Amino acid sequence: MPANLRIAPKVRRLADAYDSSFRVQGLASIARYTLLIVVLWSLLPLFPAQYQTRLANLVLVQAIAALGVNIILGYAGLISIAHAATMAIGAYASALLMMRLEWPFAAAFVGACVLGALVSAVVGILGTRIQTNYFLLVTLALAGSVRLIIVNESGLTGGPTGLFGVPPAELFGWVAESDSAFYMLVVPIAALALYLAQRLRVSRTGRAMIALRLNEPAALMSGIDVKRYRIAAMALGGAYLGASGSLFAHLVRFLGPESFSLSLALLLTLMVVVGGIGSNAGTVLSVAVLVVVTAQIQDVGNAWVFYYGVLIMAMLVVAPRGLASIVPLVRPRLAALVGRRR
Amino acid sequence: MEPAAFFQSLLSGASAGGIYALVAIGFGVMYRTTRVFNFAQGDFGALGAYVAFTLAVTWHLPFWAVVPLACIVVGVLAVVVERIALRPLYRHGEAYTFIATIGLAFAIQSAIQQIWGPRPRVLPSVFGDTAVQVFGLRVVPQLAAMLVISLALAGALYLFFTRTKIGTAMRAAAHNRRVAGLLGIPVDRIFSLAFFLGGAVGALAGILIAPIGLLTPSMGASLGVPGFIAALLGGLGSMPGAVIGGLLIGIVQSFAVFVVDPRYRDLVVYAAFILVMLVRPSGFFSEEFRARRI
Predict the structure, then answer these.
(1) Which whole-number Å values give the CA distances from B123 to A44, B203, B211, B226, in the listed order?
(2) Predicted confidence band at B293 (pLDDT cuts at 50, 70, 90)?
(3) A326 touches chain B (CB under 8 A)
């Protein structure tokens, strides 16, 4: 059978997905996300101590990064391990813009997003010249270079000892110095990030990215400019990672080379794999579970890296489509089980 | 630059390059047969070095027993991992096995830290690490042995792949699994063999380079990254390509110190890699590359 006939049904399926994903009611959706913000805000008094508030902040900050990774890995299928490096660029840029150039937080935050997007897009441009497997090496080169610069340019970045005294986030004179104030700030940003990621998923751009991950030849046949969408995915994901890095800097208020190690890049990849490659809700859910679980087993020390590594492999074998795929798998079996009991 | 310094740098670069070539070869054996892009190849080397450390220093086994034993241990581990974690993923495509090996790399690194502790260890050199004068050059026997052993092994593996029946069967399985199976080639066993060879060669690279520096849990990355770059420069899965890529990376690394701040030595390697990739996106020898089908 000629190759193009084999691909034809896949193109049909892609086209069907394309049509069925148009059903988003803009206004209703905005109302839903406003409700989400209000609900999350009203949870704040329920946190018993500052520790839980800090944990919630970390979940939200990491969720933004994981959503960015989901755009790169989950939508466009690009395997990168420069996520932590892009976050580091956003974090150091935001902190240094505020400390050295005395920019306001909002401007520094936007600057971090833009810089993250730019660096990530350049990696994407280099990467599209090259086969997928080689792309990883380009991202590895970025990760290595960023680390070298952080460690060696002590005058700028504080070097191996780290950068102390990062100013807190502020907005029009209101300073988010405490964890609860930061929570009020980060909730709307995270909700906006989720909203935009969901909108992207059903937009022409997002569908093109998903199509080229699922079947590159079929996507090419449908007239999708593969290179352009790969670079777009890198740029958008980079903006998310830069934003997350900036928020992380002003939450923890200390930056060191170890804050953005390769294990963070692994952790972000794991979050997307566990959540279900391409699923935003699954990603956010797995971030919450993994951050809280990691905080509980802190005393195991560095052993958690081992469990994360094994968990990635186990997750891929057991449920290659992640948490998002387990629900439809388990539901009929549960229903059958319940039915039999009756 | 003085000629003596030039040749000295060339020699030490080539010795390190030989090790990178070994990493690239082990990696290429796996990739050309199974299409698994094994991100954990460097960590196989680290694991091999640590196993050799236990055998040699704790159990006091002689060197001729240590090296094959450590290689077999790592090779068997690679086979087991392939059976359990990678085989179910083949039908999903290369990206899935690739992410799985990223998980494997971190698992091995962390396991080493749990078992042997974060403290650096020393694996004694068998060939000797005091320099000998040869033609006015200071030659460290360990470095020379590294270069000779890796070149000899690369040649032997090249002959194995091109001249023996099993080697040919491995290349056939790499080309088309289904047709190879129809021709009576036991594809499953061929895949296991590829992982055993890849793991064992990777472990040998780790054991050979260990006496030069220290054993640390994260040494896999410093072994793996130049190894991958060497494999990609040479063209994935090509034996002569891996050797040339490895030597090139080693020599660039050793001469970079003359050009830039030594702390930024690795940046030169990355830049060289990206430059070559921009000019020749599939490496120097891309014999095993399949064309993209539409």
Answers:
(1) 55, 14, 5, 22
(2) very low
(3) no
Distance CA A188, CA A221 (A): 40
- Residue ranges of the alpha helices (H) in chain B? 3-34, 41-53, 63-81, 94-116, 141-163, 165-175, 177-182, 187-209, 219-234, 239-259, 265-279
Token representation of residue B46 = 């680290």
Whether residue B266 lies within 8 A of chain A, CB to CB, comes out as yes
What average pLDDT score do residues B190-208 get?
92
Other C-beta atoms within 10 Å of A29: how many?
13
Contact A3 B293 (CB under 8 A): yes
- CA pair distance A198, A193, nearest whole angstrom: 9
Contact between B39 and A309 using a beta-carbon 8 Å cutoff: no
Q: What is the pTM of this model?
A: 0.81
Cα–Cα distance measured from residue A69 to residue A66, given in angstroms and rounded to the nearest whole number: 5
CB contacts under 8 A, A 248-277 vs B, are 262-263, 266, 269-270, 273
Residue from the list A133, A138, A151 with its beta carbon closest to the beta carbon of B37 = A133
CA distance A337 to A318: 21
ipTM summary value? 0.77
Tens of pLDDT, residues B36-75: 888 899 999 999 999 999 998 888 888 888 889 999 999 9
**Which DSSP state fits B135?**
T
Tens of pLDDT, residues A149-181 = 888 887 788 777 878 878 888 888 777 778 888
Any chain B CB within 8 A of the CB of A305?
yes
Cα atoms in the 13 Å half-sphere on the side-chain side of B6: 3
Of B192, B187, B164, B188, nearest to B176 by C-alpha is B187
Helix axes B239-259, B265-279, angle to 10 degrees: 130
Dig out the tokens for A294 from the structure. 């990691």
